[in-house]
Design goal:
- It is a single chain.
- It contains 10 helices and 8 strands.
- By secondary structure, the protein is α/β, with parallel strands linked by helices.
- The protein has a domain at 5-132 and 183-214: Nucleotidyltransferase, domain 5, CATH 3.30.420.10.
- Strands 4-3-2-1-5-6 form a 6-stranded mixed β-sheet. A two-stranded antiparallel ribbon has the order 7-8.
């Protein structure tokens, strides 16, 4: 059976949960997209106190207001959004759910589900899990070519470690050295779909189930101390 992937991204008000933007693609291993979804979570997005404390609160005006105005995104209830996810998983026979730093996205989705009073789990069906950060560090970002490029371009943390976030991985995969991650859910899910396809093309073993493994250490084997490269609402 061929795998079909759901590539998920979330934007949150804080590190503990409060997901306000959910975006995902459904694709094959080549990055061919079968479905896209994106919505703002009504229960969170309309909570002014939570949103003004969000990491990217300025995006309310720079990104989301124009997107809402042009109908590029809509507000939906959490129940509607999770309903989409489960229905699309069934309709497209999804076998793998993945995200860049999947441990974060999976955790905040479950935390938001619980916070809003829903019992059980977000997903109705068990799926294989894949952390694209882990996959990228095991394949693309551990290459000498990337390490050399990152050093030359200054993609290095204050502690001297080569950066491994989705933004830098996409730069390497796409050749767009100046690419800046949008940090809206669907936009980020789309670049992560490209990362998935490029990692799959290496034909190396897929690290299913390896979540929260600090994959940046693969690229920085001699690093001392914890240097997770916080960027925005996520560790990457």
């Amino acid at each position: 059976m061929k795998n079909t992937f759901l590539v998920l991204d979330t934007e949150t008000c804080d590190l503990s949960g409060s997901v306000y933007d959910v975006g995902y693609t459904i694709c094959d291993k080549y990055g061919n997209i079968l479905q896209t979804r994106n919505a703002l979570v009504r229960e969170i997005f309309t909570n002014g106190k939570k949103m003004m404390g969000a990491f990217y609160a300025k995006k309310l005006f720079s990104h989301y207001a124009p997107m809402l105005e042009s109908n590029d995104i809509k507000m939906e209830s959490w129940e509607t959004i999770t309903g989409w996810i489960n229905q699309d998983i069934a309709d497209f026979q999804v076998t793998v759910i993945c995200a860049y730093n999947a441990g974060f996205d999976f955790r905040v989705m479950n935390a938001t589900h619980k916070m809003l009073g829903y019992a059980g789990k977000v997903l109705n069906a068990p799926l294989k899990t894949l952390d694209l950060w882990q996959f990228a560090c095991e394949t693309k970002l551990s290459q000498k070519t990337y390490k050399k490029l990152a050093t030359e371009k200054g993609w290095v943390s204050p502690k001297g470690n080569i950066k491994t976030g989705a933004e830098f991985c996409y730069r390497f995969c796409s050749g767009e050295w100046g690419f800046i991650e949008d940090h809206t859910a669907l936009s980020d899910a789309l670049i992560e779909t490209k990362i998935l396809a490029d990692c799959m093309a290496t034909k190396k073993k897929i690290p299913y189930g390896k979540i929260n493994q600090q994959p940046w250490r693969i690229v920085n084997p001699n690093a001392k101390g914890d240097d997770p490269h916080i960027h925005g609402s996520k560790v990457a």
